[in-house]
Design brief:
- By secondary structure, the protein is α+β, with helices and mostly antiparallel strands.
- Helices cover 22% and strands 25% of the residues.
- It has two helices and four strands.
- The chain has helices spanning 40-48, 50-54, and strands at residues 9-11, 18-20, 26-30, 33-37.
- The strands form two sheets. It has a two-stranded antiparallel sheet. A two-stranded antiparallel sheet has the order 3-4.
- Strand 3 (26-30) and strand 4 (33-37) form a beta hairpin.
- The structure holds zinc ion.
- Zinc ion binds at residues 12, 14-15, 17, 37-39, 42.
């Protein structure tokens, strides 16, 4: 019998790539939440300015480019 592994995927907040616990190269905990990254460079960028990447989820309709 084949067992489906329910692997959760996470979004690398820096580059937007989908990673999972097994594919993530690096992880970083910030404010009680663990973020996963596709590369060490992404983690470093996040570590420097976590707020910048977390706040990329803008509210709809308020900003027009
Ligand atoms: Zn990345």
């Amino acid at each position: 019998m084949k067992q489906q592994i329910n692997e959760r995927s996470f979004k690398d907040p820096v580059c937007g790539m989908e990673v999972s616990r097994t594919t993530a190269v690096d992880e970083f905990e910030y404010q009680g939440k663990t973020y996963y990254f596709c590369a060490g460079a992404c983690r470093e960028a996040f570590e420097l300015e976590p707020e910048k990447y977390i706040r990329q989820h803008r509210q709809h309709g308020f900003r027009k480019m």
